[in-house]
Amino acid sequence: MTSALIISNIILWLTVIGLSVLVFALTRQVGVLHERVAPAGALTPTSGPKIGETTEIVRTTNLDGEKLSIGGAAQGATLVFFLSPTCPVCRNLVPTAKSLASYEDLNLIFASDGDSLEQHQNYATELKIDFKAYVLSQALGLGYGVSKLPFAVLIAKDGSLAAKGLVNTREHLESLLESMNSGIATLQDYVKEYVP
Predict the structure, then answer these.
(1) Planar angle of CA 45, 157, 109, nearest 5 degrees
(2) How far is Cα of residue 187 from the mean position of the Cα atoms in its chain?
(3) pLDDT tens-digit readout, 12-39
(4) In principle, which of 41, 54, 133, 162 could form an S-S bond with 154, CB 3.0–4.6 Å?
């Protein structure tokens, strides 16, 4: 009886050691794969103005009723974040967009269309978005070729379109800034050109 117990314990310990080695090998492989995978930037659509083109000025009003011009040359770069009160990903990215704009010293505009003015005001209040930085404009979305949300457009200080794309994560938002700073339209273009 004791010899069967000893043999079963030895088999159990060999199994545990084998599984530990297997888990270590898999963990190492995941790390290697993580290093090899290129960063995913914002998905850049082909519709709308092209990266590098001068943006047209779109005149609209914010939730306070004040006139606002978006596009063209400005005192600093402008991040236009397109969202909707019914979009859960947009809701999660609003604090990220605010933090990134504050850190990078960007003018931040939240843009939407549709729904009632009251619904947008409640949404802005709930997410602590300044009414002065929130516009309702269908023309703005159509002008930049926005087809899915959340979408962001980065307009350089000189008024040229620095970057644009579908943004689902902080990494996607940061990729727009990286595109502007590096002069390469998308991270995918960078990978094609510089990564063997």
Answers:
(1) 65
(2) 13
(3) 999 999 999 999 999 888 877 766 655 5
(4) 162
Q: What is the DSSP string of 110-122?
A: EEE-SS-HHHHHH
| Same domain as 97, residue 65 | yes
Q: The whole model's pTM is what? A: 0.76
Residue the block writes with tokens 């404009």:
137
Q: Is residue 42 part of a domain?
A: no
- Between strands 134-136 and 107-112, the pairing is parallel
Query: Residue 45 falls within a domain, yes or no?
Result: no
- DSSP E strand stretches across 115-188: 134-136, 151-155, 161-166
Give one word for 43, left, alpha or beta, with left for phi > 0 and alpha for psi -120 to 50. Answer: beta
What is the maximal distance between C-alpha atoms in the chain? Answer: 89
pLDDT tens-digit series, residues 96-142: 999 999 999 999 999 998 888 999 999 999 999 999 999 999 999 99
Alpha-carbon 194 to chain mean position = 23
Please give the Cα distance from 63 to 107 (Å, whole number).
17
Number of domains in the chain: 2
User: Which structural domain range is residue 67 located in?
Assistant: 58-194
Helix H or strand E encompassing 108: strand 107-112
Token pair, residue 87, equals: 């979009």
